[in-house]
Each structure stands twice: as structure tokens, then as C-alpha cells.
Specification:
Helix content: 40-55%
CATH architecture of the largest domain: 3-Layer(aba) Sandwich
Distance between the termini: 54 Å
CATH class of the largest domain: Alpha Beta
Order of helices and strands: EHEHEEEEHEHEEEEHEHHHHHHHHH
Mean pLDDT: 93
Bound molecules: NADP nicotinamide-adenine-dinucleotide phosphate
């Protein structure tokens, strides 16, 4: 294990993962396995795990990569940012501004920052805080869970996306070698909203206290999700935003599919929804660890957008309130039926 900030090789771009948790550990780990020069900036708790066990990276297609502690450069010292050519920001939305401040203090002027965070506002928040740096928005379509002993498991499918930007070309080969090729888009706001629509299930999943596959197998939870998506689509239409198709099904079609009876849903999604038994939303993990979730960056973004154009989004607002209650230590799993009642009852 090397925690020294002078560990990195010269020559190839230095990539620093800022926020080495599930996504940062997984993407950075896959890049390191592929031979990229990666440093992980994270917390002491994760450092201790990685120091003992290294990383084990698996996915639903049978990826099984290992990095021994000696092959990982993991530090809790933000000065490592001084060495970075590229920084992959993978902190939760609540930590974006603190991460931006670390970058402002330590990163060199020509660094490129890629936000691999959910929500529609994180890359913008970084860019606003750091006008002197290049900030590129990214999107992670797949789910990664943190399992014991440094094991990070990617349990769903999807391809990493970023805004189109020539500045990323030195990274493309590494991402390809890592089995995570970057797909680049110009209309990134639409991609972000397309992803946010899928992330509306994070709160439903967290409140169900069930693995994703089990939650989505229940009609009542799917109806709740369909309500939240429909409301979001209405708000987006009124705001003139067209969410991109970021999964096999367009956002407009999703509510119809979600409302089908269980046996139809199972058949329809058998070939297009690859989720394994272990996958859960990271919002569920946050609630279990009594941490502030990203609900305000997800459902809350819908509520804010609605407000900004003079309408309301009561179902998403209700979902925000339920998760915030749970954040205050009042977590109580809701059945699909109870959640549906909650979302549809008058305020
Ligand atoms: N997990 C998924 O499946 C998934 C999928 C797609 C997108 N995403 C998005 O990816 C982003 C990251 O999610 P995640 O699940 O990887 O979160 P995570 O597992 O909580 O990882 C973030 C890590 O960053 C650490 N951190 C926060 N601020 C830091 C700082 N200033 N310096 C060093 N470390 C810091 C956190 O430590 P503490 O918690 O101790 O503060 C945590 O260990 C989120 O926006 C999420 O929505 C996640």
C-alpha cells in the first residue's frame, strides 16, 4: 500500500479520484487495472479497508479484477490533487462544494475535472465555484454497491457518458481498456435529465428497504415510480427540456411499462433490465449509514425546476419530505401500497 503522494509514474496522465467510494473506487479501480495512473483520495475508513484487502471489482457480466494493496495509491491527503491532470469527482452531491474548495486550494491550473455524479446541478456547481478550471459533466448509468472487504460490485448495465470535449482524448484509451468506454454527447443537459428520471427510483428503493430487483418486481412500487416520472415529464415539457433516452426505453414510455401487471412487466423487461440480486440504490446505503441523501439533488431538482416556471411537483415534493424524515432518524420502510397512498393523498 502506498499512501505517499509522490507515488505516481511520470509520462501518462495522472488521474485522481476525488471521493473514493462506490463509484470512484470502481471506475478508478478499473482504470488502474487497465494500467492508468490513478490515485484515490478518500476517507480514513476506506483507506483502512483498502490497506488490508485492496480492491476486488466485479460486475454482472463476470468481471473479476483484483488490485492488491501494494498496487493502489490511496490517500486522505488532498495535496494529491496537485499532481492531477484529470480529477474524477465522485462524491455525493452534499459534498460537491467541499470538494470544489479542495480543488480550488490544491489543483494545478490546467487540470480537467469530470463530475461522475448524479443530478443535474453538480458539474454546474463545480464550474461556478471553479471558473479557472475545465469542468466536464459525466454520467454513470450503472449501479455499484460497496460490499465487505474492498469488494465493489457493479450490478446493472450501461455505458459511461460525458459531455463531448476534446480535452478528454488522453483518457479515452484507458477507459476503453478498462472496459468502461466513454460515450460523449453534446446535449448533456438532456442526458442528465434522462438519467435523473431513472434516479427517481433511488428514493422509492431506499424507502422500500428492498433490493432493486425485488422492489421493481412489485406493482405498487412501480406505480409510485410511474407517478413520479409522469410528474417530472410534465414539468420538463413545460420547461422545454427533452430528456434523452439513457436506457433501452425512452423516458416517455417508462410509466406505461412500469404500470403493466407483474407478469407482463417481467416478460417485457427480461431482456432489457439487467439487475442482479445484490443491487440497491446508493440512497438506501446513505439512509442505512444515517447520512444526508441526494434526494434534494434528484426529486428536489424536479421540485425546484417546477417552482422556477411557476408550477408545482407535489409528488416529488412528498418524496423529498419522506426521505428527509428518514434522514432525521425516523426511517420506516413503506410497503408499495403505503407509499402509493402517501404520494397520492392530498397535502
Ligand atoms: N453508487 C452508485 O451505484 C451510483 C451510480 C450512479 C451514480 N452515482 C453517483 O455517484 C456519486 C458518488 O456516489 P457513490 O455511491 O460512489 O458515493 P459513496 O460510496 O458515498 O462515495 C463517496 C465517497 O467520497 C467520500 N468523500 C466525500 N467528500 C470527500 C472529500 N472531500 N475528500 C475525500 N473523500 C470524500 C465519502 O466519504 P464520507 O461518506 O465518509 O463523507 C465517500 O467515501 C453520487 O453523485 C451518486 O449519485 C452512484
Amino acid at each position: 500500500m502506498n499512501t505517499n503522494i509522490g507515488f505516481l509514474d511520470q509520462g501518462t496522465p495522472h488521474i485522481v479520484v476525488l471521493g473514493a467510494g462506490a463509484i470512484g473506487g470502481y471506475i478508478g479501480g478499473c482504470l488502474a487495472v487497465a494500467g492508468a495512473n490513478v490515485s484515490f483520495l478518500g476517507r480514513t475508513k476506506m483507506l483502512d479497508i483498502v490497506k488490508t484487502h485492496g480492491y476486488r471489482l466485479t460486475d454482472l457480466y463476470g468481471r473479476h479484477s483484483k488490485l492488491a494493496p501494494s498496487e493502489i495509491h490511496f490517500t486522505t491527503d488532498a495535496k494529491v490533487l496537485k499532481l492531477a491532470d484529470f480529477v474524477l469527482v465522485a462524491v455525493k452531491s452534499r459534498d460537491t462544494l467541499a470538494a470544489a474548495e479542495l480543488l480550488r486550494m490544491h489543483a494545478k491550473p490546467n487540470v480537467t475535472i469530470i463530475s461522475f455524479q448524479n443530478g443535474v446541478g453538480n458539474a454546474e456547481a463545480l464550474a461556478n465555484h471553479l471558473p479557472q478550471f475545465k469542468v466536464v459533466a459525466g454520467m454513470v448509468p450503472f449501479n455499484v454497491v460497496t460490499l465487505p472487504n474492498g469488494h465493489l460490485h457493479c450490478g446493472t448495465e450501461g455505458q459511461l457518458c460525458t459531455e463531448s470535449n476534446a480535452v478528454l482524448s488522453p483518457l479515452n484509451t484507458f477507459f476503453e481498456k478498462a472496459g468502461l468506454p466513454l460515450k460523449q454527447f453534446t446535449n448533456f443537459k438532456e442526458i442528465q435529465w434522462g438519467k435523473l428520471i431513472l434516479n427517481l427510483n433511488n428514493a422509492v428503493n431506499a424507502i422500500s428497504d428492498l433490493p432493486l430487483k425485488e422492489e421493481l418486481s412489485q406493482h405498487a412500487y412501480r406505480k409510485c415510480l410511474a407517478l413520479l416520472i409522469n410528474e417530472t415529464l410534465t414539468v420538463l415539457a413545460q420547461a422545454g427540456i427533452h430528456p434523452a433516452k439513457v436506457s433501452k426505453v425512452s423516458a416517455q414510455l417508462l410509466p406505461y411499462i412500469l404500470r403493466t401487471p407483474d407478469f407482463v412487466f417481467k416478460r417485457l423487461t427480461a431482456s432489457m433490465l439487467k439487475i442482479d440480486e445484490k443491487a440497491r440504490s446508493s440512497m438506501w446505503e446513505d439512509l442505512q449509514n444515517q447520512r444526508t441523501t441526494e434526494v434534494t439533488a434528484l426529486n428536489g431538482a424536479v421540485v425546484d425546476l417546477a417552482k422556477s416556471i411557476g408550477i408545482s411537483a407535489p409528488r416529488n415534493a412528498r418524496m423529498v419530505a419522506l426521505i428527509q424524515q428518514a434522514e432525521q432518524g425516523e426511517f420506516k420502510a413503506l410497503t408499495g401500497k403505503d407509499l402509493l397512498q402517501n404520494l397520492t393523498s392530498p397535502p
